[in-house]
């Protein structure tokens, strides 16, 4: 009898753990990996490139409990900042052709959000202190394969938030006046892994936070690469297997502005500062951090619920070059930045405005596949899976997978090639 009870207890515990470990999508890792986004909510189709109104991206993110898919490709030019509701999934991978760019101003996010395969770009026309993407005062958000550029103060701002993941993103080419990558201020559970930080003057990021910083590539920083919190509060930075690669604008400070309140664990990091077009850096050592006045610790401080798959720094370089940003099909801006990175030190520039960088190019229009019932799954795909193209309710069923709804299975399949 005791044996049977023990077996029953183990089975219940196993089921509970499996349920608890369901991630936002296959390949989601880190503190934000268990966001559920719009799972089970209404599917909203973005049908035009207008700034507002029915079928616009602004309208799509204005209400909670939505999965947002795109029937169009192109540049969505916005005037005012967008405020997104909570409990949403932005499935940029559903856009046809080269995908979508939201250009001209910023966007602020709310709790429990999944954002994938989309580009957010600010503009010199924004107010002086504007950031392109803001994720303040929220819980549970994951950015996956997102391009974030042309912020005037920082490209990305995260303050007083928890359970955040930024993975396989491209954060670069910030513009006047600060030209900074990102400020993390106050978050205690942030995972930043396999991202490309490129052509930012500093703050790649600035980590006034509890952060695990794994397998990132920092290229052509200006005055500083990774920046510590350098404040009275205690901050914890686990820096693991990252690669710092100097470019034409880089100073010798690939990290800096730490203080004794920055508690740093580091291992497997490299810096290549010779700009010779080859990846042949040296190991980052204790004295690099001591010179920056950080306090070194001997074991990691941050332990996310879904551990990050780690690679050697040189392997991470290849993976980031291949997949960072909205990379299902890169547009001209992201392709240009990847070209700078692949020059391994000989190309790149920190620009003052987006126009100086070449501006926002057009994206060729493209049509999405037919979806008669509007459930987010194309008719042909539904037929292949044994679903009904005339039944709008089957998108939120768990017919194909016990962890993800049918529409999530479809959307996840579109992005699967770039998840790892």
Tally of individual helices: 7
Number of domains: 2
**Name given to the CATH homologous superfamily of the largest domain:** Single-stranded right-handed beta-helix, Pectin lyase-like
Low-confidence stretches: 1-19
Report the radius of gyration as a whole number of Å. Answer: 21 Å
What is the 3D shape?
globular
CATH class of the largest domain: Mainly Beta
Fraction in helix? 10-25%
Q: Give the strand tally.
A: 27
- Biggest beta-sheet profile: 19 strands, mixed
- CATH topology of the largest domain, which one? Pectate Lyase C-like
Write structural notes for this entry.
With 420 residues, the protein is α/β, with parallel strands linked by helices. The chain folds into 2 domains: 301 residues, Pectate Lyase C-like (3 Solenoid), CATH 2.160.20.10; 50 residues, no CATH class. The protein has a 19-stranded mixed sheet that branches. It is globular and about 65 Å long.
Furnish the topology, listing elements before pairings.
Layout: H1 2-20, E1 42-46, H2 57-60, E2 66-70, E3 74-77, E4 82-83, E5 88-91, E6 100-103, E7 107-108, E8 113-121, E9 133-134, E10 139-149, E11 154-159, E12 162-167, E13 170-172, E14 180-185, E15 190-193, E16 196-198, E17 206-208, E18 210-214, E19 217-219, E20 226-228, E21 235-240, E22 243-245, E23 255-256, E24 262-267, E25 270-272, E26 282-283, H3 286-291, E27 295-296, H4 313-323, H5 332-342, H6 379-385, H7 406-415
Parallel strand pairs: 1-2, 2-5, 3-6, 4-7, 5-8, 6-8, 7-9, 8-10, 9-11, 10-12, 10-13, 11-14, 12-15, 13-16, 14-17, 15-18, 16-19, 17-20, 18-21, 19-22, 20-23, 21-24, 22-25, 24-27
Antiparallel strand pairs: 25-26
